[in-house]
Amino acid sequence: MTKKIVNYLVNMRNQKQEVAAKIASPFEKHDDIRIELEKWIEKQAYPKDNPLTIEGYTAEMISKLAPFMDGVGVYNFLVTLRERPDNAKRIIAEGFPRK
User: Fold this and answer.
1) Cα 17 to Cα 79: distance, rounded to the nearest angstrom
2) Which H helix or E strand runs over 40?
3) Rounded CA gap, 68 and 49, in Å?
4) Burial class of residue 31 (count of CB atoms within 10 Å of its CB; 0-12, 13-18, 19+)
5) pTM, full prediction
6) How many angstroms separate the first and last alpha carbons of the chain?
């Protein structure tokens, strides 16, 4: 369940409920990513001890490579790394181009 993520997006990021639900929906399929994001929401810090690693990257590593992303964006990118690793690695190699 992504209630904590939706609440964060609505209350802290001023997203509309429908938009927040759409942003949070990818986390429903990936409990491990969702759980770590919920911890980030609580602490506003990435885990140091035994962080989730996908394709060799942790959330903290992604946040350093793409400092313009907040925690939700970082963890959403971890979903991309899991579901479409080749595409995600291309984005990393290109330096996270923003259009």
Assistant:
1) 21
2) helix 31-43
3) 24
4) exposed
5) 0.93
6) 32
* Residue 57 backbone phi and psi in degrees, to 5: -120, 140
Mean pLDDT on 60-70: 95
Point out which residues pair with 57 in neighbouring strands. 54
State which amino acid sits at residue 90: R
Amino acid at 12: M
- Res 98 pLDDT > 80: no
Give the number of other CB atoms < 10 A from CB of residue 76. Answer: 19
Give residue 75's identity as a one-letter amino acid code.
Y
- Cα distance between residue 56 and residue 24, in whole Å: 23
Q: Smallest Cα–Cα separation from 5: which of 87, 75, 89, 92?
A: 75
